[in-house]
Each structure stands twice: as structure tokens, then as C-alpha cells.
């Protein structure tokens, strides 16, 4: 129940008290009241309204103790007679607006990316500090401090609890989408630890993306992100073998791909635009509609990566473009492109660069050189499953 209601509860309270940290405390106080009372009284028919009423009552009590009680009470728009009335009259539009404000507040640029991620998962995902720490392999105290500092930073900067004006919205929306994408990627390909995949984190990111699409239905790039995550998530069951080992894309059993997620992703893609997430979604769709690896339209994928490089250039996009070129036009051409990236500073610690190079060298019949590349990549990754896969590929080159 808390996972379902917490984001709406915090969002509604934050609009009233204009303080995200205080809103979370009030919401958690309401949760404690529910844990104390519901075992005796039973779960109410509208648990969300009960929690909101309890939290608002606490907000009124707290405001009464402050000097500006009258002004704050007027902002809440409540009077004493409403103290025990359930808050069932909030319109869907009001709730949606509050959630949208909370999304933009949690991803405010005054916060670091790490703080944005932690706060988004806490406020919107309903995750506990322990769950966030486990997902990102950080200590619980580190994550707790990060969240506390984020709230203090928002309060100190006097960040307004609002959706930014239209001239600021695009830049802020890019930050929101980036946070959700980062959360999904950490679940889809864990950077460290013993697990190749963290499905719960993927599910949280996908749920956040769907909520955002519902709140901003006219934003094409939001639909582009939803399409990308739906299609990528469709492969989750096929990406891990019986023993938890990684299964690479071209070796996956495509019968295990989730066709419902693919259909949903393709439907969202129809509403997408021409931004970076939309282009990546089209690349993912090329794989999704190919019944076999041989059916993959690599030339189209290479063209899409070329388009992506124009709107969102990065060394990683260039590396992925080289991979697509290799499948479309041969490993010789691709190796030339990859070799141009070897001295790229941004890829210095990126293990997939030597991994890709090793794969191309295998195809060119140069196993001794490929073995060195795979071993190099294995030494760079922090994920144990991925390291084992790379070492097995190196051994196969012997």
C-alpha cells in the first residue's frame, strides 16, 4: 500500500507545506499511525484518503505551533471542522499536477545526479533507504546521508515546488528522463556485484516512465523513453542463463522475449519524436521485430546510430555505431572505427571498448590478439558475472 500511495501522498503534502523533506516526514508519520490503528480497526475502504487525512491533520498540528500559523493554514485550505474528514475530494488532475511537481523537484539541477537518483527512488519509487543502497551497492549510511543532504539542499536553495516554466521545462525534462534512464540501466546491466541483472530496479524505472508519460502525454521524448524501456525490458528473461550467467543478444532464445512488452513499446514508439531516447527506441525495435539474429536490419541500425551521433554525440554512441557497422559491412571497417576510439579519454575505463575490439579480432581470425583484449576487459569490469563471461571468451581464444 505504501509503495502505491507514498508518491501521491508526499506530492500532495509538499504542495501544501512547500517543503519536500517535511512532506516526507508527515507522510511517514501517517504510515506509523496506520500501522498502529489498522490492525485494530481494519484497513479502510480508501486507504490513500485515510493516509492523506492523517498526514494533513499532523500538518495542521505542526503549523499551529508556528508563528505563521494563520498564513500557512490558509495555504492548506483547511479549517478545524475538516480535521477528521477523509480527503476523497481531490481531483485526478490535482493529484497528477502534484506528482509532476514532485518529479521535477526530485530531479532539480541544484542536486547532483546521485542525489537526484536516490531522492527519485525514495519519493516516487517508494523504496526504502536499504533497498536503494542494495540496488546501487552503496552503504545504507551513504545513501541516507545523500538523501538528507538533498532535502537540505532543496530547502536551502528555496526550490519552488512547481513544474518549471515552459522556457525551462525542456532542460529540466532532460534531467528527469536521464535519471529514469540511469535507474533502468543500472538494473539492466549492473555495473558491479554478483548479479548481471536487477529486475526490480528495471521495474521501478519503467513504472516511473509510465507515470511520467501519463502526466505529460504531449511530450514525444517521454514516449520515446517509455518505448525504449519497454522493448529493452522485454528481453530480461532471455538475458540470464539457468545459473545466472549473462546471455548475449545474438545468443538469446527469442521465444522468451516478452511480446506484451514489445507490443506496448512499439505502441509508445508511434507517439515518440526524434530525440535521443526515441532514436534508441527505434534501434531496440529493429531487434525486437527480427525473428532471428539473421533477420536483423543492421544497415538500418547503423543509420540510426549515425542519426543518434548527430543529436547526442558521445564516444559510447560512436562505439555502438562501429558495432552496427561491423554487422552491416564487415569487421574490417568496424575495427578501423574502433581503433580511432582507443585513445578517447572518456573510454579509458570503459570495459566494453576492449570487449568489442576482441569480438572483431575473433571474426578477423586473430585469436591471440582477441584473447588479450578480452582479458583486458575482464580486468576492468566490476561485475562478477560479466568478468566470468569475458574470461571464458578469452579462454576460448587459446
UniProtKB/TrEMBL annotation:
Family affiliation:
Belongs to the sigma-70 factor family. ECF subfamily.
The entry's protein name is RNA polymerase sigma factor
> What range(s) does the RNA polymerase sigma-70 region domain occupy?
9-67
Gene3D superfamilies membership: 1.10.1740.10, Winged helix-like DNA-binding domain superfamily/Winged helix DNA-binding domain
Query: What domain of life does the native source organism fall in?
Result: Bacteria
UniProt keywords (A-Z) are: Sigma factor, Transcription, Transcription regulation
Q: Name one Pfam family in it.
A: Sigma70_r4_2
Location of the DUF6596 domain: 172-272
Domain RNA polymerase sigma factor 70 region 4 type spans what residues? 104-154
Amino acid at each position: 500500500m505504501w509503495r502505491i500511495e507514498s508518491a501521491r501522498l508526499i506530492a500532495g503534502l509538499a504542495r501544501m507545506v512547500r517543503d519536500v523533506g517535511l512532506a516526507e516526514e508527515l507522510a511517514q508519520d501517517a504510515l506509523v499511525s496506520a500501522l498502529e490503528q489498522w490492525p485494530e480497526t481494519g484497513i479502510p475502504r480508501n486507504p490513500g484518503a485515510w493516509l492523506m487525512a492523517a498526514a494533513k491533520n499532523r500538518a495542521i498540528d505542526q503549523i499551529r505551533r508556528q508563528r505563521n500559523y494563520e498564513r500557512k493554514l490558509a495555504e492548506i485550505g483547511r479549517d478545524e471542522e475538516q480535521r477528521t474528514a477523509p480527503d476523497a475530494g481531490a481531483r485526478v488532475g490535482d493529484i497528477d499536477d502534484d506528482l509532476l511537481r514532485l518529479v521535477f523537484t526530485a530531479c532539480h539541477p541544484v542536486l547532483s545526479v546521485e542525489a537526484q537518483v536516490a531522492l527519485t527512488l525514495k519519493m516516487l519509487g517508494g523504496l526504502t533507504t536499504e533497498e536503494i543502497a542494495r540496488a546501487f551497492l552503496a552503504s545504507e549510511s551513504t545513501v541516507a546521508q545523500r538523501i538528507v543532504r538533498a532535502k537540505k539542499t532543496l530547502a536551502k536553495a528555496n526550490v519552488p515546488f512547481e513544474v518549471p516554466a515552459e522556457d525551462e521545462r525542456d532542460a529540466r525534462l532532460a534531467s528527469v528522463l536521464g535519471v529514469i534512464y540511469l535507474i533502468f540501466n543500472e538494473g539492466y546491466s549492473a555495473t558491479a556485484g554478483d548479479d548481471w541483472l536487477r529486475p526490480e530496479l528495471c521495474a521501478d524505472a519503467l513504472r516511473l516512465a509510465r507515470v511520467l508519460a501519463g502526466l505529460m502525454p504531449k511530450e514525444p521524448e517521454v514516449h520515446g523513453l517509455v518505448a525504449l524501456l519497454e522493448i529493452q525490458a522485454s528481453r530480461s528473461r532471455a538475458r540470464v542463463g539457468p545459473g545466472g550467467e549473462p546471455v548475449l543478444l545474438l545468443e538469446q532464445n527469442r521465444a522468451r522475449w516478452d511480446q506484451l512488452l514489445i507490443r506496448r513499446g512499439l505502441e509508445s514508439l508511434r507517439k515518440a519524436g526524434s530525440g535521443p531516447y526515441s532514436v534508441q527506441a527505434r534501434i531496440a525495435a529493429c531487434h525486437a521485430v527480427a525473428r532471428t539474429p539473421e533477420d536483423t536490419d543492421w544497415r538500418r541500425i547503423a543509420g540510426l546510430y549515425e542519426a543518434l551521433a548527430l543529436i547526442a554525440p558521445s564516444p559510447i554512441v560512436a562505439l555502438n555505431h562501429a558495432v552496427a557497422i561491423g554487422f552491416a559491412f564487415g569487421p574490417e571497417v568496424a575495427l578501423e572505427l574502433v581503433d580511432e576510439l582507443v585513445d578517447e579519454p572518456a573510454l579509458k575505463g570503459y570495459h566494453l571498448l576492449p570487449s568489442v575490439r576482441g569480438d572483431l579480432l575473433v571474426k578477423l581470425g586473430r585469436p591471440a590478439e582477441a584473447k588479450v583484449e578480452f582479458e583486458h576487459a575482464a580486468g576492468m569490469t566490476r561485475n562478477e558475472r560479466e568478468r566470468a563471461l569475458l574470461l571464458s571468451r578469452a579462454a576460448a581464444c587459446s
